[in-house]
């Protein structure tokens, strides 16, 4: 997605070989116009898939799920993150290990909001190690719903997330795919044509 790649080049800050800071427009201060365009781009890429709900994880995925779901005319759900492992019969839950924070937390979704009739699109800000997204796919599997695919705003293609999810047969659409990055330069996999 051209506008997104240009914005990453202009305002993104590479903090280390693996961490990209985008909090001036994507995940702290948020550009609503770009966010809506991102939602439209995901809706277009998954057109015809009869999606019934969009699923994300709090907090940085919420506005992208909102923009996508609004464009598709369906509800969105955000999985909640909890430190304490308090399993309840009323939720689908999965553990997620955060490599950046070196901690394991639990994500959960109330059972009443996912059913075997649902066709789910997952949307999130980053695809990095894939741990968070794998957790969401486990929740979908447990609910019996159909996973249509994953929309990632930024994919760090040099990390293992895509490979992991593709192995499980999941369709992935990323709007900006970073092949490599350093403090001097960010290299994208696809040209900024669309
Ligand atoms: P995962 O490693 O599970 O794919 O990514 C988990 C979460 O970590 C992402 O949803 C995102 O919020 C955060 N994250 C991963 N890599 C980066 C990064 O390079 N920059 C920022 N700002 N967040 C990241």
UniProtKB/TrEMBL annotation:
It is found in: Cytoplasm. 5-phospho-alpha-D-ribose 1-diphosphate binds at residues 128-132. It is an enzyme of class 2 (transferase). This is Xanthine phosphoribosyltransferase. It comes from the Bacteria. InterPro entries: PRTase-like, PRTase_dom, Pur/Pyrimidine_PRTase, Xanthine_PRibTrfase. One of its GO terms (cellular component) is cytoplasm. Its main location: cytoplasm. It catalyses: XMP + diphosphate = xanthine + 5-phospho-alpha-D-ribose 1-diphosphate. It comes from Brevibacillus panacihumi W25. Residues 32-157 form the Phosphoribosyltransferase domain. Pathway: Purine metabolism; XMP biosynthesis via salvage pathway; XMP from xanthine: step 1/1. Its EC number is 2.4.2.22. GO terms for molecular function: xanthine phosphoribosyltransferase activity. Keywords: Cytoplasm, Glycosyltransferase, Purine salvage, Transferase. Xanthine binds at residues 20, 27, 156. One of its GO terms (biological process) is XMP salvage. Homodimer. Converts the preformed base xanthine, a product of nucleic acid breakdown, to xanthosine 5'-monophosphate (XMP), so it can be reused for RNA or DNA synthesis. The keyword Membrane does not apply. Belongs to the purine/pyrimidine phosphoribosyltransferase family. Xpt subfamily.
């Amino acid at each position: 997605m051209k506008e997104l790649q240009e914005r990453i080049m202009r305002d993104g800050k590479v903090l280390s070989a693996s961490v990209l800071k985008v909090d001036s427009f994507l995940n702290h201060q948020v550009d609503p116009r770009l966010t809506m365009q991102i939602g439209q781009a995901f809706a277009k890429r998954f057109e015809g898939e009869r999606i019934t709900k969009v699923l994300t994880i709090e907090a940085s995925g919420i506005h992208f799920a909102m923009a996508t779901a609004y464009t598709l005319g369906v509800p969105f759900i955000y999985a909640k993150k909890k430190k304490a492992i308090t399993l309840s019969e009323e939720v689908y839950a999965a553990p997620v290990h955060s490599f950046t924070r070196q901690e394991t937390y639990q994500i959960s979704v109330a059972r009443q909001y996912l059913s075997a009739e649902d066709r789910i699109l997952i949307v999130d800000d980053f695809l990095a190690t894939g741990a968070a997204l794998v957790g969401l796919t486990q929740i979908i599997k447990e609910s019996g719903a159909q996973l249509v695919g994953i929309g990632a705003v930024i994919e760090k293609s040099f990390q293992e997330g895509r490979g992991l999810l593709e192995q499980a047969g999941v369709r992935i659409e990323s709007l900006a795919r970073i092949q490599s990055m350093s403090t001097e330069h960010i290299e994208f996999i696809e040209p900024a044509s669309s």
